[in-house]
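Open question from group meeting: does this chain pack into something compact, or does most of it stay loose? Before anyone orders reagents, we agreed to write out a predicted structure and look at it together. Recording both the input and the output here so the notebook holds the full record.
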Amino acid sequence: MSTLVVCVDRNNDIGRKTGLEMPVAGWEAVRSLATDVGLEDPEDSSVNCLLEALRVARDLRDEDEETTVAVISGTAETRVGADRAVAAQTDELVEEHDPDSAIIVIDSAEDERLVPIVESRVRVDAVDRVVVRQARDIESTYYLLKQFLADEELRQTVLVPTGIALIAFPVLLMLSGPALAAAAITAVIGLFTLYKGLAIGDYFRDLPAQARDALYSGRVSIVTYVVGAGLSLIGVFAGAYRAAPMDASDGVLMPAMAFTFASVPWLAVAALTASAGRLLDEAIRNDRVRNSYLNLPFGVLAVGLVVRGFSAYFLQQAEKIPPVTVPEVAVGQTTVDQFTLNPGTRLAVYVFLGVFVSLLGVRVASYVSGTTLEDELVE
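Structure tokens returned:
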């Protein structure tokens, strides 16, 4: 088995300092080359790369393995030309020595970009990266920063927001004080992190295309989504209108509960409208509708009932809304007198209705689709 131990120099530092034509192959030739480069520039890391290639070749030779040590370099002005020069030199070495495999020795992250070029011509068993021990942390940090700054997407994602925050902070500091400045910058960074983490930008970028496809395909859901959005706006307005008269002494909880109590019916109807459109689209496109689509309207209604029940409980406890009074009911000879629901009973009724609607949705979905819950889980 023959192995080619090749030292890769993309920037042609070795060829430029020695004036030799690449590739250079052979133990004595590479050892002489290492001496020449070291005498020319003792601080050059290429010296360590050449010595490491010689050491690897020596260790393989001690294990009775046939080895050839060589040096290839990017002898061209442009990066494309340098990479093509390395490819041509690799072809020359493979044709001359016909190795079974290769071990690549490099001294920088930039040289590592040439590994696929060598690997496309001969099997690569190992990549040996040489870092000068005294400068390991400095060099590693340098190459990480260099790769980071070379990535345009990372620059726009990290450096631009950081720069804006550093510019805005002293301005806010002078205008409003340290507390508000720190709070504003932290809030903006948090919103930006959520924006990136939840891929909100991707969603809004794909939204026009999805809306266009929905319009062209004649989906019912596009209309119900618009209606749902309008009902949601009404719900937000109704909630804000209900919470506006609250006193400052009520704190935050009571206005929030008032907003929820007034807006939940509208928001629930909006969600029901949107889910109904989605259900109709699914029914039109497919012969069989999945249980999840059939369950969706019932789930929305159940959640709306439970949320409204909890908000009504807090408001009735604070005497912000009147209790529910059930009128007298007469059924035949049986008469039920008028009674009033206290906050706990009112909450229990809402929770019971929510659970009942949810179970009803599961039953209706199973009946319509002709499957059981176990069948749906298996599917």
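Observations to bring back to the group:
The longest helix spans residues 253-285.
The mean pLDDT is 80.
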